Structure formats: C-alpha cells, structure tokens
C-alpha cells in the first residue's frame, strides 16, 4: 500500500482522485483497506482545513421541520404552546435545557446544534 500523509492541497486532491477510483472496492481486500485509510486521512485533513460551523439552533429546528413536514403544532410537545414555539422560531426567546433535550430526543437534532449560542453583535 503506497499511502502518504496529506499535507497540501495537491496531496488532498490526489487523495480524492484515488478514493474515487477505489469507490467500488470490496471490504477486506487490499483495495478496500487502502480506501479506508485514504478516507480517514482525507477526513482528518478536512477537519483541520475546512472546519464546519454548527448551524444556528433555530435554523436547525426549521430545517428539521421542513425535512419532516412538521408544523408549529407538532413542536408544541417539545417547546410549549404555539405562542412559545413562535417566540423561539422568531428568535424572541431562547431554548431552555428541557426544550433542547426534547428536540434532541424527539427530532434527533444534534444537541450541539441546539446549544450553540447565536452570534452577538458588539457595539464599540
């Protein structure tokens, strides 16, 4: 197996190209093992060089609502009465720990996304 660390963008692009050629490799074969190692190296490089920021909690909720065809009424068991749901969705009120737990448990929204604080604007 001829694999080297990914240190530059050129190395990264070469690794992506190699992964593409190995996508149909069977598990537990030399090609399959090479694919596993390359994917691990690529993921490490991407985590370091292309970090993803977590979405805004309200955007995460709205995304799940859209994906699952949910309405404000569907969120009431997790957040409270409809006026409370609207306050959350309009950034008028913050999520409580209890709401975060229920949304994570019932909708599968990652808790990390729900806990993230919205960006604050600072006035100098």
From TrEMBL:
SUPFAM superfamilies registered for this protein in UniProt: lambda repressor-like DNA-binding domains
GO biological process: regulation of DNA-templated transcription
Top-level taxon of origin: Bacteria
GO MF annotation list: core promoter sequence-specific DNA binding
Protein name from the UniProt record: HTH-type transcriptional regulator / antitoxin HigA
Originating species: Nitrosomonas ureae
């Amino acid at each position: 197996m001829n694999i080297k660390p990914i240190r530059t963008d050129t190395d990264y692009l070469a690794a992506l190209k190699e992964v593409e050629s190995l996508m149909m490799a069977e598990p537990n074969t030399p090609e399959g093992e090479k694919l596993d190692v390359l994917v691990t190296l690529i993921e490490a490089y991407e985590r370091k060089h292309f970090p993803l920021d977590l979405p805004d909690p309200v955007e995460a909720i709205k995304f799940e609502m859209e994906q699952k065809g949910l309405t404000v009424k569907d969120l009431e068991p997790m957040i409270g009465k409809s006026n409370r749901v609207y306050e959350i969705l309009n950034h008028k009120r913050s999520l409580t720990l209890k709401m975060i737990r229920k949304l994570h448990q019932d909708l599968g929204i990652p808790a990390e996304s729900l806990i993230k604080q919205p960006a604050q604007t600072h006035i100098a």
